[in-house]
Write a structure and sequence with these properties.
The complex is a heterotetramer, with 2 copies of chain A and 2 copies of chain B. Chain A has 2 domains: 179 residues, Rossmann fold, CATH 3.40.50.970; 128 residues, Rossmann fold (3-Layer(aba) Sandwich). Chain A is globular, with a radius of gyration of 19 Å. Chain A is α/β, with parallel strands linked by helices. In chain A, helix 2 links the parallel strand 2 and strand 3. In chain A, helix 3 runs parallel beside helix 4, helix 8 crosses helix 12 and helix 9 packs across helix 10. A 7-stranded mixed beta sheet of chain A has the order 3-2-4-5-7-6-12, sandwiched between helices. Chain A has a 5-stranded mixed beta sheet with strand order 9-11-10-13-14, with helices on both faces. By secondary structure, chain B is an alpha/beta fold. Chain B has one domain: Rossmann fold, CATH 3.40.50.970. Chain B has a 5-stranded parallel beta sheet, sandwiched between helices. A two-stranded antiparallel ribbon of chain B has the order 4-5. In chain B, helix 5 packs parallel to helix 6. The longest helix of chain B is centred in the N-terminal third of the chain and has 26 residues. The termini of chain B are far apart. The chains are: A alpha/beta, B alpha/beta. Chains in contact: A-B, A-C, A-D, B-C, B-D, C-D. The interface between A and B is large, with 47 and 48 residues. The complex binds thiamine diphosphate (TPP) (2 copies) and magnesium ion (MG) (2 copies). The site of one magnesium ion has 6 residues of chain D, from strand 4.
C-alpha cells in the first residue's frame, strides 16, 4: 500500500469530500497560494477561490463565519494553522459553535457541520505560543467533538467522517507528522471507536496523536524488560470509547494517560475519573499522568524536553504503577 | 423609492405590532414572568424600514435588543413570547430565553456576546456567494458594538470578498448608560466605511421613510453583486438598557426623543398624505394589542419543559 | 459586626487598595457612571476617569491593555462583568497574562500584577452565554491564580491580596451573592489556605463560591439523617491547599467535589486525581462529582435546575459514596 | 526636521547594524543553529527612522518580524542572538526564542499571535497618562495585522482616551505569500485613520529620511498630549516569510525592490550630501559585521539552560 504523510492523507480527504459535496468549503489563512505540502495544498486549483477562501487575518472572523455559513446549510472547514491562534476565536468556538444549537433549542433542525482544523504540539522549538495542544480546553466545553489522529490512515478516515458530521468537530493535527499506509479505496472511520495499538497484560497506556508514537516506543523498551504494556489510542475524545479503556484496565489493573497538554484539569484526570467511576476496584495503583507539569512550553531544547512528555517519562510512569 | 400605499400601511402595521409586542413583554417582565430579562427596542422601530424590505429567503443577523427584527421577518409572536417565559412552545423550547433563532425566517440566532453576529453574517453571505444566489444578508449592530474587533474584521471581509451584506448600525447614543463620546472615536459611525472602501450613509433612524430609502439602495447594491454598504441609523432607545436595569440617562433627553417617536412620526406622515385615518390608527393598534395579548396568554398557559428535555438538543 | 454583600465588601477592598497604591487602576465596561451597587460603584467619584476607565467594548482590548500597563509598573484591575464575555479575551488572558513572564524568562524582573474580575454562575435564568463558571478553563492553563470566594469576608480579604499579588489573578464572583459580617479593620487573606466550613467525620465535600452555600445546606440536611459531613472551601484553586483536602479525606474516606462548571476535565476530576496521587488508599469510594453534565446552561427554570448542582444532588452524591 | 549630521550617521549605522544582525541570524538559521525559526526584517530597516527617535524612557511594542526594533532601542545583540539559539544568556534565558522582551529598553515583548501588541500599547500609554508623564508609545504592526480586531479596538481606545501612541503600520504588501489586495479593503492602511479621527499619513518606508520626518511629527504630537497618529510605511520584505519557508513571490518584484533597499537609498543620500564617504561605509559595515559575528560567537559558546530551569520564572 502507498505511504502518505498525515497532511497528504488529509489533503486527499478534503479533495474527495469537496468533490462529493458542493456544500463543503475551506476558509482560513495562507490557503492561497499554498505555502507547501499541507492539508489544504492544491485545493484552490481544483475548487477555486470561492470555495477555498483565504481570509483576512482574524480568527474570530474565520470561526464565526464558519458558524454563520453552517447555519444556512454549508459545511465549512475552518483552518487555523495552529491551535494557539484559535484562542482568538474562543467565543466563536466555545459559545457559538458549541452551544448555538442547544441554546436555540435546535430551532428548525439547526445543524452546525463545521470542522475546525488546527495544528498542535511541541518538540520543534516553537515556544509557548506556537506549541500548545489544548485538547482538554475544548473537551471541557459542551457541544464539540474532539478528534486527534495518530496515523495517516486514521487522519484520512476521521477527517472524512468529520466533514460529514452535523456537529462542530475540533480536528487536531500534530506538527510531528508521521507517514503511514493509506489505501486507495474510500473508507471512513467512525467517531468513538478506540484502537488498541498494542496488546499487553501488565499496564494500560492511553494516548492520542503524537503521544501514541511515544507510548509505543516506551512499550517496546519495557517489553525488553519483561513488562507487557497495552497501548490504546481513543482517536476521538468526544465521543470517548471509555468501554475499551475500562476493559483494558480491568485486565491490567494499571493506567497511565499520556497527554501533551498541561496536566491540571486535563485529559488524564478526566479519563482517570471516568475509569474509577465505572469500576472503582479495577485500579491497583493511582493513575499515572504523563503531561506538561502546568508550564508554558519553553523554547530551548533541554527545557522543552524537561516539560513535554517523553518516552523515558512514560516508561517511568508505567513502572511507578507497577512498583 | 417610497413604498406603495399598501406597503406603507404594512410597514406602519409592523411598527405598531412590534411596539405592542414590546409593551406586552415589558408588562410580563414587570410581573416577574420572565425568568431572565428583556432588553427593549421601544423607540428603534424605524429600523423596520430596512428589515421589512428583505425577501423571504434573505438572512438577518440580530442584536441583543428588541423584537422588531422578528416581527419584521414574520416570526410568530406566540412562540417568541413563550420563549421569553421559558416555555416548551417557545422558539428555543425554553432553552434560550431572549436568545432566539428563527431559521425559517432566516434569522440566525441571538448571541449572548455582542459583536458575534457580524462574522455570522459573513458566513451566511459566503454561502450565498458560493451558491451563486442573489440573497442579501442584513446585519444589525449597535454603535457600542462597533468597537468590537469582530465588527472590524467582518467589515473588512465583506469588502474584500465583495459580499452581499447590508450593515445596519443602530446608533442610539448609549452603551448601557455610558454616552457614545466616551467610547466611539467618530461622531458618525458611517465614517468607518472609509476604512473598508464601502459606501457609508447617515440616516435619521426615526424617520422610517428615510430608512426605507437608504436601505433600498443598499439592498439593491448587494443583490446586484456590487458589495456591502454601511448605513448608520441615528436613533434612541426609550427604555432603560434592560427592564431590570435602572434608567440613568437625563430625563430631558428622553423626553425630547419622545417627540421623535418613529411610530408617531410615520403616523403623521401617513395621515398628512391621507394614507391613514384616525380610525385606521385605532384599528391597527387594537388589532396589534389583541394579537400580543393573545401571545402573552399563549405563553403563560404553555407548559414548562420537562427536566429531561435539558439533555436533548446538544448534538444534531 | 456590620454585614456587607460580597459586592460591597469588594467595593471596600478596591477603595482601600486604590487609596493605598496609585499604581492600582480599574478598566472595564459600564464603570462610569456606575449602574448600581456593585464592586466598582463610586470609584470614579473618588479616583476620577483616568483611574476608573470605562472602555470601548472589546474584551481583548481591556485584557491586553491590562497586560501592557502591568508590564510598565501599573496594577490594573480589569473588569469583565461576566466571565462569558472574557472568552473574547482568551488569547490575552491565557497566552499573554498567563505566559508572558515565563516565555520572556522573567526579563528584567517582569511582573504581571493584574486582577481579572468576572461574574460567574447560573440560577438566575441568564442562559448559556451569561451563566458560565469557567474556573477549570483557567486552572488548566499555566500562570494564572484562581480565586473564588464564598463569603463577603473572604471576598474582601482575598481581593486585597489579589491586588497586591505580582501575578495575574482570575477573581470570580457569583451572581448569587451572599451577605456576611465584615470587620472594619483592615485584613488580608493569603492565597492557598482552605477554610473548613463545617467539621465532619463521614464524608468530605469540597466546594468553592456559591457551591459552598449549597454544600453546607446539604450537610445540614444529612446531619438530620445522622451523616456527618465535612465541608471544605479551598477559596483559591491556584494555589490549592491540597494538604487540607487530603487530610480530611484520610479521616472520612469519602470525597465529593461540587463544581458549577461542566464536569469533563473539571475541578472535580483534578482534585480527585490529586487526592489519589497523594494517598491512593485514602478513598473508600469513587470521588463523587456534582457538576454540570457537560451541557450549556439552559434558560427555563426547570431545565436549569436539571443541569446545575443542587442541594439534593449533593446529598445524593454524598450518600452514594457511603453506600 | 532632518537629523543632525551626527544623527544621520548614527541612524545609518543603526540600519547597517540591524542588517548585519539579520545576516548573522540568517546564517545561523541556515546552519541549523536556531531551534525555532527566524522571520527576517531585511528590507524594512527604514522603520528605524521612527524607532531611533524614541527617548530612552519611551515604550515600543514590536511585531513578529526582524531585529531593528531591538537594535534601534539599544538592546544587546549578544543576548538577542543567544536567545535565538536557546541559550541561558539570552534575553529570555532560552525560554522564548525569537519572543524577546527588553524591558530595560522599553520593549514590552514579542507575541506569538499577531495583533496582540496593540492592546499592550494601549496599556503602556494608559500608564503614562495616569502617571502624568510625557512618554510616547510606538506600536508596530503589519498590514496583514491591520485586520485583527485588536488593532481596531486599540485604535479606537487610543483615540477616545487621547493616548500618546504612534501607530506604525509597516505595509510590506504581503501576509505570508498572499498579496495584500486579497485581505485589505483599502489600498492605503493610513485611510483607516478616518475611522478613528486621527491623522493618517502614507510614507515611503524605504526612505528613512521621510520616515524620520513623519515620525517626528507624530511623536511630537503624542508627547504634547495631542493624541495618537497612524503612519503607514510602504515597504517590502526581502526574505521569504520566515527562514524555513519557501519564497513564493514573483522574483521580478523582489528584484525591483532590491533597487529600493533602504540602506542603499540612505547611503546614496548621505554620500551625495557628503555626510558619508566610501571609507565610512566600509568602516561602518565592517564594525557591524564584526559586532554581530561576535554576538553569534557569544551565542554559540553560551551554555544551554539546565533542564531544572524549566520550572522557574512562571510566577513572580
Ligand atoms: C462581548 C460582550 N461584552 C459585553 C456585553 C454586555 N452588553 C450587552 S449589550 C451591551 C451594550 C452594547 O451597546 P450597543 O451596541 O450600543 O447596543 P445598545 O444596547 O445600545 O442597543 C453590553 C456592553 C455582552 N453582551 N457581550
Ligand atoms: C493570531 C495569529 N494568527 C496567525 C498567525 C500566523 N502569522 C504569523 S505572521 C503572519 C502574517 C502577518 O502579516 P503582516 O501583519 O502583514 O506582517 P508581515 O509578516 O508581512 O511582516 C501570520 C498570519 C499568528 N502568528 N497569530
Ligand atoms: Mg447603543
Ligand atoms: Mg505584511
Amino acid at each position: 500500500m502507498r505511504t502518505l504523510t498525515i497532511s497528504q492523507a488529509m489533503n486527499e480527504a478534503l479533495h474527495e469530500e469537496m468533490r462529493r459535496d458542493p456544500a463543503v468549503y475551506v476558509v482560513g489563512l495562507g490557503l492561497y497560494p499554498s505555502d507547501g505540502d499541507d492539508a489544504t495544498s492544491g485545493l484552490v486549483d481544483e475548487f477555486g477561490e470561492r470555495r477555498v477562501r483565504s481570509a483576512p487575518n482574524d480568527e474570530a472572523l474565520i470561526a464565526g463565519s464558519a458558524v454563520g455559513a453552517a447555519l444556512v446549510g454549508m459545511r465549512p472547514v475552518a483552518e487555523f494553522y495552529l491551535a494557539d491562534f484559535a484562542f482568538n476565536a474562543l467565543d466563536e468556538i466555545l459559545s457559538k459553535a458549541g452551544k448555538w444549537r442547544y441554546m436555540h433549542g435546535s430551532n428548525a433542525g439547526m445543524k452546525l457541520p463545521i470542522v475546525f482544523l488546527q495544528g498542535i504540539g511541541g518538540y520543534v522549538g516553537a515556544a509557548a505560543e506556537h506549541s500548545q495542544s489544548p485538547l482538554a480546553l475544548y473537551w471541557h466545553s459542551p457541544g464539540l467533538k474532539i478528534v486527534a489522529p495518530s496515523t495517516s490512515y486514521d487522519a484520512k478516515g476521521l477527517l472524512k467522517t468529520a466533514v460529514r458530521d452535523d456537529n462542530p468537530v475540533m480536528f487536531f493535527i500534530h506538527k510531528f507528522e508521521d507517514s503511514g499506509p493509506v489505501p486507495e479505496d474510500e473508507y471512513l472511520i467512525p467517531f468513538g471507536v478506540a484502537e488498541i495499538r498494542r496488546d499487553g497484560a501488565d499496564a494500560t497506556v492511553v494516548a492520542t496523536s503524537y503521544m501514541v508514537t511515544l507510548a509505543l516506543q516506551a512499550a517496546e523498551n519495557l517489553a525488553d524488560r519483561g513488562v507487557d504494556v497495552e497501548v490504546i489510542d481513543p482517536r476521538t475524545l468526544e465521543p470517548l470509547d471509555i468501554d475499551t479503556i475500562v476493559g483494558s484496565v480491568q485486565k491490567t489493573g494499571r493506567l497511565v494517560v499520556v497527554d501533551e497538554d498541561t496536566e491540571r484539569c486535563g485529559v488524564a484526570a478526566e479519563i482517570g475519573a471516568q475509569v474509577l467511576e465505572r469500576d472503582f476496584a479495577a485500579l491497583r495503583a493511582p493513575v499515572g499522568r504523563v503531561a506538561n507539569p502546568n508550564l508554558p512550553v519553553p523554547y530551548s531544547p533541554p527545557l522543552e524536553e524537561a516539560v513535554l512528555p517523553s518516552v523515558a517519562k512514560i516508561e517511568a510512569a508505567i513502572l511507578a504503577t507497577l512498583a | 423609492m417610497a413604498p406603495t400605499p399598501t406597503g406603507q400601511l404594512e410597514l406602519y402595521t409592523l411598527m405598531v405590532r412590534s411596539r405592542a409586542f414590546e409593551e406586552a413583554a415589558i408588562a410580563l417582565a414587570a410581573a416577574g414572568d420572565i425568568p431572565g430579562s428583556w432588553l427593549s427596542g421601544v423607540g428603534q422601530e424605524g429600523t423596520l424600514g430596512a428589515i421589512s424590505q428583505l425577501r423571504p429567503d434573505d438572512y438577518l443577523t440580530y442584536t441583543h435588543r428588541g423584537s422588531y427584527g422578528f416581527i419584521g421577518r414574520g416570526s410568530d409572536p406566540k412562540r417568541l413570547m413563550a420563549e421569553l417565559l421559558g416555555k416548551r412552545t417557545g422558539y428555543s423550547k425554553g432553552k434560550g430565553g431572549r436568545h432566539i433563532a428563527d431559521l425559517e425566517h432566516g434569522i440566525l440566532g441571538k448571541s449572548g456576546t455582542i459583536g458575534a453576529h457580524a462574522p455570522l453574517a459573513i458566513g451566511a453571505a459566503t454561502a450565498v456567494q458560493i451558491r451563486g444566489g442573489d440573497q442579501v444578508v442584513m446585519s444589525l449592530f449597535g454603535e457600542g458594538t462597533s468597537n468590537r474587533g469582530t465588527t472590524h474584521s467582518s467589515l473588512v471581509a465583506a469588502s474584500v470578498w465583495r459580499l452581499p451584506v447590508v450593515w445596519l448600525c443602530e446608533n442610539n447614543g448609549y452603551m448601557g448608560s455610558v454616552p457614545a463620546r466616551a467610547y466611539t472615536a467618530v461622531t458618525d459611525i458611517a465614517d468607518m466605511a472609509a476604512s473598508y472602501g464601502m459606501p457609508g450613509t447617515v440616516v435619521d433612524g426615526n424617520d422610517v421613510s428615510a430608512v426605507h430609502q437608504a436601505a433600498e439602495d443598499a439592498i439593491d447594491r448587494a443583490r446586484a453583486g456590487q458589495g456591502p454598504s454601511l448605513l448608520e441609523l441615528k436613533t434612541f432607545r426609550m427604555r432603560a438598557f434592560g427592564e431590570s436595569w435602572p434608567e440613568l440617562r437625563d430625563p430631558a433627553e428622553i423626553a425630547a426623543w419622545q417627540e421623535r417617536d418613529p411610530i408617531l412620526l410615520y403616523q403623521r406622515q401617513l395621515t398628512a398624505s391621507d394614507r391613514l385615518t384616525v380610525a385606521d390608527v385605532e384599528a391597527i393598534r387594537a388589532a396589534a394589542h389583541a394579537e400580543m395579548a393573545a401571545a402573552a396568554e399563549f405563553a403563560r398557559e404553555s407548559p414548562f419543559p420537562d427536566p429531561a428535555e435539558a439533555f436533548e438538543d446538544l448534538y444534531a
